């Protein structure tokens, strides 16, 4: 699943003093009789017109907004996505509070309303302290050998508490109509393996803070040797981190595709009988599994043998405590947040009502989503989106047909994949009903557990059944979009279909520069460095000629190099390999959206609105989508973990490769973002 957040930036070329430099672009006078917005979809008050567009278009388009929109104390960033998410969570709060106080509830309202009420009942939560966790601790206390440990790992996974490694059910990438048991790497707490393995000042500081956090959390549950046991946990997690693949490696769908029989899996891990372990997981009749990282499981096997049973028990207690802490009394919540502050720089805890709204969206999302759609989603938005998707698809077809570097045979297959895209807009055609989940108004922790158990059982029950391609990977209140390679589908939840991405009353330039580029972005994911390896049915297979694949990699390599050139914080730079898929999607999406926009009546004309031409409004709309302020601590973490580039580069990076942007803003040699025409990268 590809989360939406783009960041492309161009390399500043060396300039000669003799080169002409373009002046700042200010709004042109409004023509008499030209259409005007009551709402300023492109508001000059948000801009910094003292900056030349060709030097830093992101700052030119957003400079004033960035200065006046400081990051709230309870946030780690603030930008267009955050504004919409705030609006979405306020909407969820309204729905949940109404459901909680309504005495004549439907089943749907009862479940989400009582869940919300239980989570807002801080008095009861404080009174219980960490009592809800004590039965699980008692189970761990009784473990005596490795068989006991494996039993407990399975029991906790069935409660949705994953430990040591990742187990889930998903589609077989080479047989996408079938679900398979799958095993991934896991078992660590810090956001990336590098935090365990690197010795730079930033990594060392976070490791030290984590050790302190572990000690304090273990102290809260009465551990007799919290500091020593914190070291034991860190030692075990470091060993797991050493065996993990790096994030860049994990992006390769072939490297993480290791299909083998359960018996062969047993041979890799001689001390773990996977037939027995799958039985413990509740998996029956499956003789084949997918394993992402075989080396990781060899390490898991060795650690289970080499680690003293008491250290394994400490590790398991920590994982239970870590997973439960947000739902326990305030000492646990506060200590959890204290460590979050170190990782992200966030200054204040997120308000309880926001945390509860997000929790219910994540656990009973289809129930809350139904209420959200009924109240906030307009049918005309879905209709308008269908037209936009049609137009973007038509533009993409033209782009593929016009590719000089691709052979006719590969073009034919690429076009077949494009027209095979499945579209999901707004909300699912059918909803999960969460049968069997009992929500009690007086048992917050029990409600969290019940939702986790239902989620696990729902996942396991997929085995042996046809793949349900109507299912969504996001809920309607989610401000995001995604492309699924195994389903060859693009999805746009209801909450993203709002300004600045989309507004039914906005001019086409605004909508195509916003949601149009987002649509193009998700479409292009089907043809990025990873997505291109899946065919029209979603099957992982090579459908490219060797020559075409080589030419694609050559162009993608230029995008990779461009982004490696962007510095973010002190010694940190954008990882061009980690962000390659998103950067390709940004570049392709913007180019495709622009050409689709040029087929609209507004795009064919040159009538200014608020002093900006149609083309200028298109590119300004693109820029304002990616405006964001980010705390430095959070930015440092994102550089390691996020496959998206920072907002500034998502804006500037693609633009420096788009000829029409140069024309629209009179960008010339000497401007910092200027690239010679032959150096501008064109992939799709």
TrEMBL record:
Cofactor(s) the protein requires to work: Zn(2+)
One protein family per Pfam: Peptidase_M13_N
E.C. code: 3.4.24.71
CDD domains, per database record: M13 (cd08662)
Entries under PROSITE patterns matching the protein: NEPRILYSIN
Keywords: Hydrolase, Metal-binding, Metalloprotease, Protease, Signal, Zinc
A GO BP annotation: protein processing
Top-rank taxon, per record: Bacteria
Region spans: Disordered: 18-48
Compositionally skewed regions (Basic and acidic residues) per UniProt: 34-46
Alphabetical list of InterPro entries matching this protein: MetalloPept_cat_dom_sf (IPR024079), Peptidase_M13 (IPR000718), Peptidase_M13_C (IPR018497), Peptidase_M13_dom_2 (IPR042089), Peptidase_M13_N (IPR008753)
Annotated signal sequence range: 1-20
Any one annotated GO CC term: plasma membrane
Molecular functions (GO terms): metal ion binding; metalloendopeptidase activity
Ranges of residues in domain Peptidase M13 N-terminal: 53-428
All copies of domain Peptidase M13 C-terminal, residue ranges: 480-680
Stated family: Belongs to the peptidase M13 family.
Protein name listed in UniProt: Endothelin-converting enzyme 1
């Amino acid at each position: 699943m590809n989360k939406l957040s783009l960041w492309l930036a161009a390399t500043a070329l060396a300039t000669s003093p003799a080169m002409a430099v373009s002046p700042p672009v200010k709004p042109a006078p409004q023509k008499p009789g030209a259409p005007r917005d009551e709402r300023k979809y492109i508001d000059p008050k948000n801009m910094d017109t003292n900056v030349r567009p060709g030097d830093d278009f992101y700052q030119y388009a957003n400079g004033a907004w960035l200065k006046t929109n400081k990051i709230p104390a309870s946030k780690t960033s603030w930008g267009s996505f955050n504004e919409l998410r705030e609006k979405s969570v306020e909407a969820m709060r309204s729905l949940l509070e109404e459901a909680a106080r309504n005495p004549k509830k439907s089943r749907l309202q009862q479940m989400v309303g009582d869940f919300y009420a239980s989570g807002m009942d801080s008095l009861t939560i404080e009174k219980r302290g960490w009592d809800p966790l004590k039965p699980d601790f008692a189970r761990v206390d009784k473990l005596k050998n490795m068989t006991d440990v494996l039993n407990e790992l399975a029991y906790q996974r069935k409660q949705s508490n994953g430990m040591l490694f990742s187990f889930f059910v998903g589609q077989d990438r080479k047989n996408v109509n079938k679900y398979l048991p799958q095993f991934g790497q896991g078992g660590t707490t810090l956001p990336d393996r590098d935090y365990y393995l690197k010795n730079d000042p930033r990594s060392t500081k976070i490791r030290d803070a984590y050790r302190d956090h572990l000690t304090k959390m273990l102290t809260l549950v009465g551990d007799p040797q919290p500091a020593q046991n914190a070291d034991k946990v860190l030692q075990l997690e470091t060993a797991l981190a050493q065996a993990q693949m790096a994030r860049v490696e994990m992006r390769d769908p072939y490297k993480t595709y290791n299909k083998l029989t359960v018996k062969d899996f047993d041979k890799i891990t001689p001390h773990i009988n996977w037939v027995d372990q799958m039985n413990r997981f509740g998996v029956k009749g499956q003789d084949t599994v997918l394993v992402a990282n075989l080396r990781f499981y060899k390490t898991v096997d060795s650690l289970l043998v080499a680690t003293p049973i008491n250290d394994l028990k400490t590790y398991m207690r920590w994982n239970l405590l870590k997973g439960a802490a947000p739902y326990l009394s305030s000492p646990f919540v506060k200590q959890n947040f204290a460590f979050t502050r170190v990782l992200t720089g966030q200054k204040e805890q997120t308000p309880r009502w926001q945390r509860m709204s997000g929790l219910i969206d994540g656990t009973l999302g289809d129930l809350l989503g139904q209420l959200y759609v009924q109240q906030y989603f307009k049918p005309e938005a879905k209709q308008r989106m269908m037209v936009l998707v049609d137009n973007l698809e038509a533009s993409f077809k033209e782009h593929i047909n016009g590719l000089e570097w691709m052979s006719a045979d590969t073009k034919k297959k690429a076009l077949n994949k494009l027209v095979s895209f499945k579209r999901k807009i707004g909300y699912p055609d059918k909803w999960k009903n969460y049968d069997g989940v009992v929500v009690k108004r007086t048992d917050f922790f029990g409600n969290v557990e019940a939702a986790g158990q239902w989620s696990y059982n729902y996942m396991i029950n997929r085995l042996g059944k046809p793949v349900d391609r109507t299912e969504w990977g996001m809920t309607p209140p989610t401000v995001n979009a995604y492309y699924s390679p195994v389903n060859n589908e693009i999805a746009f939840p209801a909450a993203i279909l709002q300004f600045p991405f989309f507004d039914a009353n906005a001019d086409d330039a605004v909508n195509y520069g916003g949601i149009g580029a987002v649509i193009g972005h998700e479409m292009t994911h089907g043809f990025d460095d990873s997505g291109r390896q899946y065919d029209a049915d979603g099957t992982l297979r090579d459908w490219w000629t060797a020559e075409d694949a080589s030419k694609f990699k050559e162009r993608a390599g230029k995008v990779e190099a461009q982004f490696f050139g962007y510095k973010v914080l002190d010694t940190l730079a954008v990882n061009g390999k980690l962000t390659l898929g998103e950067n390709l999607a940004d570049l392709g999406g913007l180019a495709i959206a622009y050409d689709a926009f040029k087929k609209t009546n507004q795009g064919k004309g040159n009538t200014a609105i608020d002093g900006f031409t149609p083309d200028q409004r298109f590119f300004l709309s693109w820029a304002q989508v990616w405006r964001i302020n980010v705390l430095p601590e959070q930015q440092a973490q994102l550089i390691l973990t996020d496959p998206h580039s920072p907002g500034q580069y998502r804006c500037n990076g693609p633009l420096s490769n788009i000829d029409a942007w140069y024309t629209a803003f009179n960008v010339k040699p000497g401007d910092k973002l200027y690239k010679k025409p032959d150096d501008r990268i064109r992939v799709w």
